From TrEMBL:
<dbReference type="InterPro" id="IPR044861">
    <property type="entry name" value="IPNS-like_FE2OG_OXY"/>
</dbReference>
<dbReference type="InterPro" id="IPR029044">
    <property type="entry name" value="Nucleotide-diphossugar_trans"/>
</dbReference>
<dbReference type="GO" id="GO:0005783">
    <property type="term" value="C:endoplasmic reticulum"/>
</dbReference>
<keyword id="KW-0223">Dioxygenase</keyword>
<dbReference type="GO" id="GO:0005506">
    <property type="term" value="F:iron ion binding"/>
</dbReference>
<dbReference type="Pfam" id="PF25342">
    <property type="entry name" value="GT_PLOD"/>
</dbReference>
<keyword id="KW-0847">Vitamin C</keyword>
<dbReference type="InterPro" id="IPR006620">
    <property type="entry name" value="Pro_4_hyd_alph"/>
</dbReference>
<feature type="domain" description="Fe2OG dioxygenase">
    <location>
        <begin position="666"/>
        <end position="759"/>
    </location>
</feature>
<keyword id="KW-0256">Endoplasmic reticulum</keyword>
<dbReference type="InterPro" id="IPR005123">
    <property type="entry name" value="Oxoglu/Fe-dep_dioxygenase_dom"/>
</dbReference>
<keyword id="KW-0325">Glycoprotein</keyword>
<dbReference type="Pfam" id="PF03171">
    <property type="entry name" value="2OG-FeII_Oxy"/>
</dbReference>
<keyword id="KW-0479">Metal-binding</keyword>
<dbReference type="GO" id="GO:0008475">
    <property type="term" value="F:procollagen-lysine 5-dioxygenase activity"/>
</dbReference>
<dbReference type="InterPro" id="IPR057589">
    <property type="entry name" value="GT_PLOD"/>
</dbReference>
<keyword id="KW-0560">Oxidoreductase</keyword>
Amino acid sequence: MVDLGAVLISQQPAFCPHFRWGYKERLFRASGRRMRLLHVLAFVLLIGIAVCKNESKNKLVVVTVASNATDGYLRFLRSANLYGYSVEVLGMGQPWLGGDVKRYAGGGYKINLLKKYMENHKDDSKTIYLFTDSYDVIFTASAKTLVKKYLEMKARVVFTAERFCWPDSSLSNSYPPVMGSSKYLNSGGFIGTGQSIYEMLTVRDIADTDDDQLYYTQLYLDPDMRNDLGIKLDYENQIFQALFGSEADVKIRAREDEVKEFYLFNAEHNTEPCVLHGNGLAKDTLNSMANYLAGSRTKTDCLICSENNFKIADLPTPPTLQLGIFIERPTPFLPEFFARILAQDYPKEHIHLFIHNREAYHKQHVADFLEHTSSYASITVKGHDSAISEAEARSLGISECLSHACDYYLSVDSEATLTQPMAITLLMELNRTLLAPMMVRPGKMWSNFWGALSDEGFYSRSEDYGEILDNSKRGIWNVPYVSTIYMIRSDVLKSGQVPSFEVQGIADLDVVWAKSLRDKGTFMYVSNVHHYGHLVNPDSYDTSLIRPEYYQLADNRLEWEYRYIHEDFEAMKDPDTVIQQPCPDVYWFPLVTPAFCNDTIAIMEHFGQWSNGANNDKRLPGGYENVPTRDIHMKQVGLERQWMLFLKDYIRLIQEKVFTGYFHNPPVSLMNFVVRYRPDEQPALRPHHDASTYTINIALNNPHVDYEGGGCRFVRQNCSITNTRAGWTLMHPGRLTHFHEGLPVTSGTRYIMISFVDP
Ligand SMILES: *[C@@H]1O[C@H](CO)[C@@H](O)[C@H](O)[C@H]1NC(C)=O
Ligand SMILES: *[C@@H]1O[C@H](CO)[C@@H](O)[C@H](O)[C@H]1NC(C)=O
Ligand SMILES: *[C@@H]1O[C@H](CO)[C@@H](O)[C@H](O)[C@H]1NC(C)=O
Ligand SMILES: *[C@@H]1O[C@H](CO)[C@@H](O)[C@H](O)[C@H]1NC(C)=O
């Protein structure tokens, strides 16, 4: 047995500082003020506490019933430690005998455990006992403050007051009338001396499965009993705050001091409650408030982020990871996704791989990836022909983890691309039971978590959602839903706190799964402490196209740039980079990658309807082309709009740099096309002006490799460019000054892509 007299804080003389100095010190450090002085202060405080303790009159003991050390329980203990409470836990590790606890973590079982415990303290009229639930409770003020408030209330026993009359609403008429909105007894939190609590518990017997709240309610509603036992309800939320139904009155505020710590505020009564209870359906609201309260963060810093962390380098061997990869729908840029998996800076011999690919389209991508996976500890692949459902696959991933005695399970869907090579390590080191790295569709409000739930249990925008998404608030956030990518510690897998996917097998698997996690009380955290990667958007991905990624500039710009924009292009935008001029006023710079050139050619050749080179051209508004080429317009292959975006977001930047003083945003171009030159078709083009303010001319393949001859000659300037490079573009004035011709291709095929900008 624990010696109850041992610790404990209490009603101390006013000069006695309460012993949260460790916490304050941490806050000061977080606010950037590291002071030697603090150590001296801490020492003085310690002495102060030692002195004060001797003068204590009323000790406070917190008693709670908890059968499992859930995340909620650990959060409760953390807040208790932080604010100087001493906690006695009843029933830990024992089977729960209190019946269905869905709505209230209740049951006569709690009363019976408490009664047994209080037998040893039935004559104690000095020690104050605070009885509270724990899974959905946090302390929000110090033990000293709480005791002071209790003594001021001049009651023997004080119960939480709540908004709803439960479990028997017909009793509501029997309650005494009061001002304020919380009129009814809630048994999730009460406080009194040992003697008075024991007296209350022994009025009559209760079965383990009976409702404890009803038991206390009946005592309270009997006026004689209420009087004898000295029971009051905390109508003004001096001590207890039951959240359900009062969400609108309960605020989180930051103190206006240097530390900017958050505290709980009840706006109905202008009080600062000490115990916050997410009773009823308020669990998710409590979870989001707890992201701020109990020293979890200050206005500027996440304090909880550095708690419980470890360094993998300090471990004897790296933890074993089961990595589950799920391709459940056609996903753009899958080769890049796999490349980033391979680039994860974590020893592959400690990673077991499980892959589920439901899409025949991605079969080759998976096969290409498997060429590089020999150093992983093991690999299991379920391809599209294995015909297992998404739910089965996800359950299988978890079973694989357990059968490999994994320490962590990382589930990654193909939309979640991990650009951070240290992601695995960084996630593990944060040491949370279930942690999702925050991933966002770049520039969109779409992410892999929800900040809040609607009444129907679907997405709802939380107040802080936007700030978390744009990283103006960083931290580890307890949220009601995560998906797409998350890491689970294997101890929670083993303890059954993570539901299986098997039972679902219906639409919206992710939503159902997140709900069952909430029901089990397993916290879902999302971290934006680091940047881990982003979500690709599969919505407009059309695998019936020959090179579908090529069409993804608008919807997946980051991936598109990574695959298609030349790595040296970024530097071209720099005002200090001089752009080459192989001929006067003809600029030449790297723009797109070989993959771009390759895909452009493939798309055009697949389409195949090259113009016949005649002057009459139905594709043109006037129906006539003075200087015809063999070509295909971007419009004909569904790329006109994307090409306008390309001109605006890439070409314009260089144009404004080289043709100083010419602004035209967005650039307009009616003629965007790929030209094919070859000896047996059209080898060259006679001298002409372009119908443009300026023209871009991108080489799509290389001389001496793909063809001989070719190039562009500017007649007035008497200057030719024949050493063109695939992916580099020429940019030159169109009409008037740059009369030019296409030089003959003597063998092979030459492809160029042309835009007449601002005709
Ligand atoms: C608590 O743990 C027991 C096993 O110790 C388990 O059977 C039970 O489901 C757990 N309850 C919760 C709420 O996780
Ligand atoms: C990880 O966190 C748990 C609490 O959730 C703690 O008990 C454990 O010691 C931590 N692990 C390490 C390696 O620090
Ligand atoms: C071009 O495409 C072909 C397949 O059509 C492929 O074999 C080749 O590797 C690609 N080259 C580049 C640079 O993407
Ligand atoms: C054009 O340039 C070539 C050399 O590049 C030179 O031989 C020739 O004389 C030039 N012609 C004119 C008209 O300047």
